[in-house]
From TrEMBL:
Coiled-coil ranges per UniProt: none
Record-given protein name: RagB/SusD family nutrient uptake outer membrane protein
Similarity-based family: Belongs to the SusD family.
Main localization (coarse): membrane
Keywords: Cell outer membrane, Membrane, Signal
Length: 533
């Protein structure tokens, strides 16, 4: 294994955060040695770790990179054509370099900061005066958090340092692990988490439980092409877990249905806005340039006026149209002038600034209904919309893909998903046609839920055996060629975001993002850059 050095900055950020966290509790002089002595202290610490999976208090740390990854796919434009796009442009336009990474810098640092924090908590809770059951609860949750951070890191950057003990200032030299070794640690953590959480209550309050661990095991098994394991874990969640598909697809992202029957794990939000507990995603990706005159009430209270990043492409809309998939299309995309699906009375013709919107479309999943807007004290980016991280439909699609590769009944699972949105079952398809349909169902079902970039990087084109992203992006990519010949009335009349999106993709390097140059510099050149950068 190669030698690398973990970023000193990431470690110093942890120290500052830990100090911050302790001071907020206002218990006098507090140190790591005398913290973790009560159930409440361990729960508070674990809750803070869980929050860092997505809903960091600063929107740019994790939420911005999440939408930037969506923008690097065929599902989304940057979208906002009226403001500086330097945070999103490097990755979304495939001009990213180690010195110009935009907001991909922040997710790298943030996840290592959380991993270090998880390690501290795990060590301290192991020797705390809690009961074994209490330790298992909080340590199981912490192990899941560490695994989730590594899952995202390995898919974004490839092999990264794996460490499971807290670091001191004199102990910053680690070995850089291969991607396979990172996945091994992820699996170890998730299996340990599932065991520790075996008897923990499965409450619908957003806490991590054993089913989240099994579901993430199913996902990472799929990503490694461990088809038998992917089938085993997804089937376990489907058949033994307490989850059901929502009868109404739109209800999955309903602000009044937090932690619904389909949800395995959601990033939690709150309507208590003065505590920064809400989600920034609906603001970051909300319609830019709303005006009260476009609402029946003519009332400024109905205006949210988002920032307009991460706008759906017409290519994605066409994918829904090709299946006559009305329910998922309208639940995922609202086109300028159309009624907001499910909010037709109060927002019958959702309009926003076309001068500032590349595609004339917004993501309906991130939409805050008018009635909720009227109840808010502030509309400053902390909004009461939970963000699903893992849900049951993904498990059906995982089992379908695993069944395809192991000789099982893949059609049955995708037809369960299609039936929920009133689509006819697929029959009589097999081989490459069936695999492409499974890929398509994942796209239509899970759009804007953080998986598209990872999927098109790992999915293999059944004709070429190469990653699907290579057939979509680059000068000859089907997505690029579609945009260059498109006649879409919105996308082609706002060229302040270039119509040749994805043309700069290079398969020799862009299957991963580069390691931030700062990390390489801090290592004295011991860290080696990803190929091609």
């Amino acid at each position: 294994m190669k030698k690398i050095i973990v970023s000193i900055i990431a470690f110093s950020l942890f120290l500052a955060s830990c100090s911050d966290f302790i001071e907020k509790d206002q218990r006098g002089t507090q140190t790591l040695e005398n913290y973790f002595q009560t159930v409440q202290e361990c729960e508070n610490y674990t809750n803070e770790l869980t929050q860092r999976l997505l809903l960091a208090k600063e929107w740019w740390v994790l939420t911005a990179p999440r939408v930037t990854n969506e923008m690097a796919t065929d599902d989304a434009w940057m979208g906002n054509t009226g403001q500086d796009n330097s945070a999103h442009r490097p990755a979304s336009q495939y001009i990213i370099t180690p010195d110009n990474m935009g907001d991909m810098n922040s997710i790298y640092t943030a996840h290592f900061y959380t991993i270090q924090s998880a390690n501290v908590g795990l060590e301290r809770m192991a020797v705390s005066p809690l009961t074994d059951a209490q330790k298992n609860q909080y340590m199981g949750e912490s192990l899941f958090v560490r695994a989730y951070c590594y899952y995202e890191l390995v898919n974004l950057f490839g092999g990264v340092p794996v460490y499971t003990k807290s670091l001191g200032t004199g102990d910053l030299t680690l070995s850089r692990n291969t991607a396979a070794e990172v996945y091994t640690q992820i699996e170890t953590d998730l299996k340990d988490a599932a065991t520790k959480l075996e008897s923990a209550p499965v409450a619908r309050n957003g806490r991590i439980n054993k089913w989240a661990a099994y579901a993430l095991l199913a996902r990472v098994s799929l990503f490694q092409e461990k088809w038998a394991e992917a089938k085993t874990y997804s089937n376990k969640v489907i058949t033994e877990g307490p989850f059901q598909l929502e009868a109404d697809f739109l209800n999955i992202w309903n602000v009044n249905n937090h932690n619904g029957i389909e949800s395995i794990l959601e990033a939690q939000s709150s309507s208590v806005q003065d505590r920064n507990l809400g989600a920034a995603l609906p603001t970051l990706s909300g319609a830019r340039g709303e005006d009260k005159k476009n609402f029946p009430s003519n009332d400024a209270a109905d205006v949210l006026d988002g920032w307009g990043w991460c706008m759906p492409t017409s290519d994605l809309e066409n994918a829904y149209l090709s299946e006559n998939d009305v329910i998922r299309r309208r639940s995922t995309i609202t086109k300028w002038g159309e009624a907001a699906y499910g909010d037709e009375v109060l927002n019958p013709t959702h309009k926003f600034s076309l001068n500032d919107n590349k595609s004339g479309r917004i993501c309906r999943k991130y939409y805050i209904p008018i009635a909720t807007r009227r109840s808010l004290d502030k509309k400053d980016g902390h909004l009461p919309l939970n963000i699903p991280l893992i849900r049951l439909a993904e498990m059906y699609l995982t089992r379908a893909e695993a069944n395809y590769h192991t000789g099982g009944d893949a059609l049955a699972d995708i037809n369960i998903i299609r039936a929920r949105v009133k689509l006819d079952p697929k029959t009589g398809i097999s081989g490459p046609t069936l695999l492409r349909q499974i890929y398509k169902e994942r796209r239509l079902e899970l759009a804007f839920e953080g998986l598209r970039l990872f999927d098109i990087r790992r999915e293999k084109d059944p004709t070429t055996g190469r990653p699907v992203i290579e057939s979509l992006m680059g000068p000859n990519g089907t997505f690029v060629q579609y945009n260059l010949s498109s006649t879409d009335p919105y996308e082609t009349t706002n060229l302040r975001e270039s119509q040749d999106k994805g043309i700069n993709f290079n398969p020799a390097k862009n299957l991963l993002w580069p390691i931030p140059q700062l990390e390489i510099d801090l290592s004295g050149g011991v860290i080696k850059q990803n190929p091609g950068y």
